[in-house]
Structures
1.
Amino acid sequence: MGETVKVVQSPKKKAKANRFTTVDIVLMAILAIVNGVAMTYLAMLNQLLTALGGPILTSITLGLYSISGVLAAYIIRKPGAALFTLTLAGVVQILSGNPNGLISITAAVTDGLGVELGFALFRYKRWDWLSVSVSGILAVPVWFVISSFWFGYYKWGMSILLLAFGVRCLSGIVTSGWLSKLIGDILVKTNLLKGFKIDKDRKAKEVK
């Protein structure tokens, strides 16, 4: 069963409820900075992994690039949280010296759009293993196509590309989707997320 909270709201109230609060923005900024700096170092590791095992080996870690977006969306539960967080993380990557340069922002934006699409398919109402898995997977396709040409992965042949795509999708599910849910669920139980939608939904569920 999906974790769905049904509340009837007028369009005006719904729009107001979906606005980012100050604490939402602060959380997204923190996640973006942490993720952006960490991914700069991970990009260096990925260059080594690519040299050792091509697109398949480097694809193992790719889900981590979108984890801040999935986690932000899972906690804040408002449209745009993932895209805002990942776009800002992309800017942080560039400022922190990501070896991939300006293409990092392209990766961040496409990841963010994919994550947003995943949660949008459930109308931002379902927050469970399925929704985070779908969002983790949908962060993969667009950037995979771009990176295949940008980094020359297509030269490895179609069979290697398909295998690499499968590994990236699995990484998206596990290290982006599932890990985000685990972190969010642990944090909300510690009462560190008071005021966020994830905490309100948890309390509403307990009342029922």
2.
Amino acid sequence: MSKKSTGVRKNDTKPKETGINNHIARFLQEASKDFSAQAPIKVLAGPMVYGFNIIIGPDGSPKFETFGNLSHAGAKEHGPGRDHLIDVIDRDNKITVLAELPGTLRENLTIRASESELIIEASADGKRYRRTIVLPRVVDPDTASAQLNNGVLEVIFNKAYLS
């Protein structure tokens, strides 16, 4: 009776990294090095948040965006506040952008859009916020609809179909 080879050597505990798994593994490895190299974190009042979104671009390559009130070594320093959470949803013939804007009133909010990006400017409680979001597909900015409800901004675009 012959022994079957599984393709994994007995001492191999790490799976092969391919495609997006390779990008994610490298990103996490860099982030953990950066955090371990930092001096102890000062205790902040309120929650401490650090996270990332992974978006697959039209060319198939992943884009990593970080958010939160903590930063890793080499990144820009954040103030006492934190970045607002942003989510971009690409479904069917629509692009939806959800943005966390706690305490923002409609009269303190400005939204501008082009075919490829959305710019949000807001102020609340004496703090100003500005963010430019690169959209994953070309949109028709004239079809934009927006609503602000309980501190969450939702902007919906129709995708533009180029001929």
